Amino acid sequence: MGKLKTLMTGMLLMVAFHTEAVDFETATDAVKNMGVGWNMGNTLEANNQSVTSDITSDAYWGQQGLESETCWGQYPTKPELLKMMKEAGFGAIRVPVTWYNHMDKDGKVDAAWMARVHEVVDYVMNQGMYCIINVHHDTGADGNSFKSWIKADEANYAQNKDRYEYLWRQIAEEFKDYDEHLLFESYNEMLDKYSSWCFASFSSPAKYNASDAASAYNAINSYAQSFVTTVRATGGNNAQRNLIVNTYGSCSGGGTWNQHLKDPLKEMKYPTDAAGEGHVIFQVHAYPSLVDGDKNRTIASIKGEIDEMISAWNTHLVSKGGPVILGEWGTSNVDADVTDYDARRDLMFQFCEYLVQQCKANNIGSFYWMGLSNGMARFFPAFSQPDLAKTILQAYHGSSFNPVLPDAKDFSISCTVDFNQQWGEFNLYKGSSFTSADYSSVVLELEDAPVSGLLQWKVSCSKYSNGFTRDITSAESTLAFAANMGTITGITLQCKQSSGHVRIKSVKLKNRNGEEESCSPSVAWGCTMSDVAASSSTGIYEVQQDAPSDDRIYDLSGRRLSQKPEKGVYIQNGKKYIK
Predict the structure, then answer these.
(1) Element (H or E) spanning 570, and its range?
(2) Vertex 137 angle, CA 114 and 209, to 5°
(3) Helices assigned H by DSSP within 417-548
(4) Strand locations in 135-198, DSSP E?
(5) Distances (CA, A) of 426 to 337, 389, 408
(6) d(Cα 579, Cα 565) in Å, to the nearest integer?
(7) Number of H helices, E strands in the chain
(8) Residue range 247-263: average pLDDT?
(9) Strand runs (DSSP E) across 207-329, as ranges?
(10) What angle do CA 549, 555, 557 make, to 5 degrees?
């Protein structure tokens, strides 16, 4: 089938898989073989326009270094995270990547950034999973502080064609020897000059403009063609690599409230691809709403919407010669403070189960957007939503499938927090909302009592619009939740002075039954976090009944190690340690 090439990057051994291009599976086979997928979001695509949003200015380009990976609250990706996803039952990982903040005005990518992307791709590939990399937030909706440089507009294409092709030439050259498990995705959710969702020109003054819409769809197809042509020209395994092109805005065509909703599907063309015939995939995204006004929708109506979308994909995309992947999916309030996972979990799980099952039945790949393992959970690694992960995995593999899903609630961490701004905040709890009727208190243990007047609790809840605060004066502090606090969406440690320093030993929530659950702290703003250590006492380690007491060390597979690893996960005296 192929040969292995070993690459060394520092102390990390990375294995890149090679095969002859003629051996590449077709796009249709790839979509069938990749299984169920997950998006490793808010990581390599995270970005921050801190200088200017003027793309004609040199200052717009290359504003960030490797720290961009963590600027949206995640932690540097580790190979253990991808190992966990593989062992759970996922077969493919979509790795969104943003490039403008790591390249110059001409499109030349910073070597250190390319190396980091390469490293993360190897984390996925070394687990035997499929990996998708793309050009992500170089597209998207413009705002006051963000302007994308790639837009669905003919004038924009003419202006940026050379830069876009140069970017893809560099990416393609970097990975040209990789085997069929690596796929390239052209662009993410490319929008028109109005930043219109749903269909092109929807956000124009008239809500539809035929000329502007035509320009947008022509640009989408031109960018898609440039992508395919550029990648194919680099040769090697790229000659028949499976490539992904997205509809306008990655729109799914869902809904019946406007006659133009299907236009993104209808106007999408299969790129000319003589060299790689049969190796192009179409991509759409879908985030249906589970509510209608202030009421939950029926599962029957939700299933009907899923059926209608899939039928439209088959009619308008698959019929053109390429299979479809649902590259991102979730529900419409996936980023809200109170999500469907919090408010209507049973209905959400029914939606997830049916969508994954129907995608599989129709040979459509599905990649859940970003949740499941989020924030500190990725550091352990563990799942922050193990019940949702189980629902998705069993929907794909079958109800008897029993995935391995380490739970973030079974982990606890210690860390050092350095505040550098007055009123800076450090997240003690940020995740699924809960009510004060279910949880009684949060317990914080510091290494030492804080300096007088330095710290306070801040609880974001439905009862108090500006949050509830109370001073912290001792090393061990418990904040009881009043019954009328209502829904609690976050708990932070807030600095009342211009700077300060504390060492957190543990943070735990206590429910009304007196049971404790570990929290997963993270940086909010105005502070930094360092010296993080984690520990766990999950059932996996409890089964080590005869664990030796002579300090022998084992990996997670039970193999004895000759010495304590410099970094990674190991078991000693029946307990798990992360170094």
Answers:
(1) strand 569-572
(2) 145
(3) 539-542
(4) 182-185
(5) 17, 27, 19
(6) 8
(7) 12, 27
(8) 97
(9) 243-246, 280-286, 291-292, 295-296, 324-329
(10) 110
**Confidence (pLDDT) at 107:** 97
- Residue found under tokens 């609630």: 409
Q: Do the bridges between strand 182-185 and strand 243-246 make them parallel or antiparallel, or are there none, so unpaired?
A: parallel
- Residue by residue, DSSP assigns 377-410 as HHHTT-BSSHHHHHHHHHHHH-TT------BGGG
pLDDT digit string, tens, across residues 527-565 = 988 888 887 754 332 222 233 334 555 444 344 454 565
Partners of residue 38 on adjacent β-strands: 93, 368
Of residues 30, 313, 296, 65, the one with CA closest to residue 180: 30
Using alpha carbons, list the distances in angstroms from residue 377 to 78, 81, 158, 294: 12, 9, 43, 32
Q: Quick one: which of 75, 31, 92 has its CA closest to 373?
A: 75
DSSP class of 554? E
Q: CB of 241 within 8 A of CB of 231?
A: yes
Q: Is the pLDDT of residue 162 over 70?
A: yes
Rg of the chain taking only CA atoms, in angstroms: 25
pLDDT score at 319? 97
For residue 529, the model assigns a pLDDT of 86
pLDDT at 285 over 50: yes
Task: DSSP letter for 68, please.
Answer: G
Comparing C-alpha atoms, which of 138, 174, 48, 35 is closest to residue 94? 35
- C-alpha–C-alpha distance, residues 542 and 578, integer Å: 17
Strand ranges across the sheet with 455-461: 468-472, 455-461, 487-495, 425-435, 522-525
Specify whether the CB–CB gap between 566 and 413 falls below 8 A. Answer: no
pLDDT digits (tens, 9 = 90+) for 287-299: 999 999 999 999 9
Closest to 234 measured CA to CA, from 163, 171, 180? 171
Q: What are phi and psi of 94, to 5 degrees?
A: -95, 125
Q: Is the peptide bond before 76 cis (omega within 30 degrees of 0)?
A: no
Q: Of the candidates 408, 405, 350, which has an alpha carbon nearest to the alpha carbon of residue 535?
A: 408
